[in-house]
Specification:
CATH architecture: 3-Layer(aba) Sandwich
Strand order of the largest sheet: 1-3-2-4-5
Shape: globular
Number of helices: 4
Number of strands: 5
Structural class: alpha/beta
Largest sheet: 5 strands, mixed
Number of domains: 1
Strand content: 15-25%
Length: 109
């Protein structure tokens, strides 16, 4: 079962900006091949960090204003948030070891 929830612009404030835990947001789209390749990796890392880091997906086609707000021009695009602020970013496919390392840094582990 996936530990990743969908994020919409209306939920951004409560789910990301005001989150007490670090957040990773995957900006992607259904039609994007690399996004589909990244999805199971993102899900596995989300399970690994369950309860310590929040993982969210944001479909750029239905949440274009959120993608624009953060300057998302290419997908997949992962934004790493701490205290509501972007602290890291990864554009394009990232393998599980690299993503896990980035999330470990984000979580301060």
């Amino acid at each position: 079962m996936s530990k990743v929830n969908e994020l919409s612009a209306t939920e951004f404030e409560s789910e990301v900006a005001q989150s007490s835990e670090p957040v990773v947001v995957d900006f992607s789209a259904e039609w994007c091949g690399p996004c589909r390749t990244l999805a199971p990796v993102f899900d596995r890392v989300a399970q690994q960090f369950e309860g310590r880091v929040k993982f969210l997906k944001c479909d750029i086609d239905t949440n274009n204003e959120l993608a624009e707000k953060f300057g998302v021009m290419k997908i997949p695009n992962l934004l790493f948030f701490k205290n509501g602020q972007v602290v890291d970013q990864s554009v394009g496919y990232i393998n599980e070891a690299e993503l896990s390392a980035k999330v470990t840094d984000l979580a301060g582990e």
